[in-house]
Amino acid sequence: MNTTSRLLAVVIVLQGLALAALMLGPSAGLPQASAQPADSGVQRVQMIEQQRETNQRLQSLIDLLRSGDLKVKVTLPDPAK
């Protein structure tokens, strides 16, 4: 057998393996993933709760700014950098 015949035999074997893999399908050996449908009601409740938390944090910042107790320290950038 010369080199061309050996390469042809290897190609035929590989094509046979590819055909067998296609016939068995993607589920051969690997479990299929099943996506759960999104529950829009739960997502909406979570979004509303997050918005309430954000509003509370913003209100505390507004209260701090209105109180006048905010202290700001201004520093100059380091010229060496």
Structure keywords:
81 residues; elongated
Summarize the structure.
With 81 residues, this protein is mainly alpha-helical.
SSE layout and pairing:
Elements: H1 3-24, H2 40-67
Describe this structure in words.
By secondary structure, this protein is mostly helical. 62% of the residues lie in helices and 0% in strands. It contains two helices and no strands. The longest helix is centred in the middle third of the chain and has 28 residues, at 40-67.
What's the SSE pattern? HH
Number of helices: 2
Structural class by sheet pairing and helices = mainly alpha
**What is the beta-strand fraction?**
under 5%
